[in-house]
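lol forgot to send this yesterday, sorry. struct tokens for the thing we talked abt
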């Protein structure tokens, strides 16, 4: 490193030694200020990581997951994504797993069963008031085929949107015949060939979630790697047991997905270990990291897979989809 330095003039493309030293100093200063401004700041650090060219892990996942590379299940799998705790990543998981499975060539139907309509936003399907929606299928005898919309750019991914009407459905359902099994009937009558039906549940254990659990054979529970992650899980599991005993003997918790994992905190590991100890191999090996790209994507009406395919968020959802598909119906 002693033969050619900035001051020997041989590598300076033009200008004086002073000029090249100034440029080097500027570059160093920029690096130092970037390091300083990002240290201790989760979001910026993460952005930097995500901004790197496609990481090795990403390349592997993309290589492995070219369309049609995932096994088609022997029959339709209906999975409800549920956890009555709010903000744990249910919708993000339904949207991104749905997209990942569809990108791998499978036929997917995502049903937005939350009056917040977040899955509809994430998949960019119309869900303004008055749009035919899951409400019409539950309350008004419309068929799911009539209300499903194709996600733009992904012909094998459909979404049944939720509009604000759904907010009243919990109460309206109470007085209807077969109030717990209306979604099940609607899904059974869906005529299209579908490999996966993913139902995004609201953060409650009310009649909408009961409908999802009566319609599904599998429950996927996203668990956020944070304090209080396990709080309320007992109640969720009790409810699933009750539904199994009285309404749907086939229902079971098939999959746990750890979300918003932050590798830099001990807490995330503690939560992950605790969950794995309790739920054993129901927990997917793939873990979804806390990633700014994942949270930005819905703002653009996109999944993280289309918004930033090389990001860690995208590759982990691809990996989770792969695991889910390969585990099949257990
Ligand atoms: P609700 O109970 O309100 O329906 P939810 O369980 O569906 O919430 P999401 O809406 O998927 O949770 O996520 C909650 C928030 O966390 C959203 O703003 C979402 O963008 C963000 N988020 C989800 N997953 C991640 C992640 N892996 N990294 C960073 N942000 C995330
Ligand atoms: Mg949600």
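and heres what i got for the seq, position by position
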């Amino acid at each position: 490193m002693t033969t050619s330095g900035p001051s020997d003039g041989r590598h300076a493309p033009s200008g004086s030694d002073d000029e090249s030293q100034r440029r080097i100093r500027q570059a160093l200063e920029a690096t130092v200020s970037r390091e300083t401004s990002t240290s201790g700041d989760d979001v910026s650090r993460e952005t930097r990581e995500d901004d790197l060219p496609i990481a090795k892990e990403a390349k592997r996942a993309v290589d492995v997951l070219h369309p049609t590379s995932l096994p088609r299940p022997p029959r339709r799998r209906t999975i409800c994504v549920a956890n009555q705790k709010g903000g744990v990543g249910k919708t993000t998981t339904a949207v991104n797993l749905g997209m990942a499975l569809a990108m791998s060539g499978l036929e997917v139907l995502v049903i937005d069963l939350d009056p917040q309509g977040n899955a509809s936003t994430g998949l960019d399907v119309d869900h303004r008031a008055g749009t035919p929606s899951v409400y019409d299928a539950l309350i008004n005898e419309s068929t799911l085929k009539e209300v499903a919309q194709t996600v733009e750019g992904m012909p094998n991914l459909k979404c049944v949107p939720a509009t604000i009407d759904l907010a009243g459905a919990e109460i309206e359902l109470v007085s209807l015949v077969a109030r717990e099994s209306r979604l099940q009937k609607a899904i059974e009558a869906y005529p299209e060939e579908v490999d996966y039906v993913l139902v995004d549940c609201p953060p409650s254990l009310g009649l909408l979630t009961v409908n999802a659990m009566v319609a599904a054979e599998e429950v996927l529970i996203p668990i956020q790697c944070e304090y209080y992650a396990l709080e309320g899980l007992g109640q969720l599991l009790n409810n699933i047991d009750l539904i199994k005993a009285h309404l749907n003997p086939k229902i079971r918790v098939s999959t746990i997905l750890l979300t918003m994992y932050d590798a830099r905190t001990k807490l995330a590991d503690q939560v992950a270990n605790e969950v794995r100890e309790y739920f054993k191999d129901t927990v997917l090996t793939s873990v979804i990291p806390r990633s700014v790209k994942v949270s930005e994507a819905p703002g653009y009406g996109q999944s993280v897979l289309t918004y930033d395919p090389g990001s860690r968020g995208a590759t982990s959802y691809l990996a989770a989809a792969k695991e889910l598909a390969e585990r099949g119906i257990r």
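DSSP finds 15 helices and eight strands in the chain. anyway ping me if u want another try
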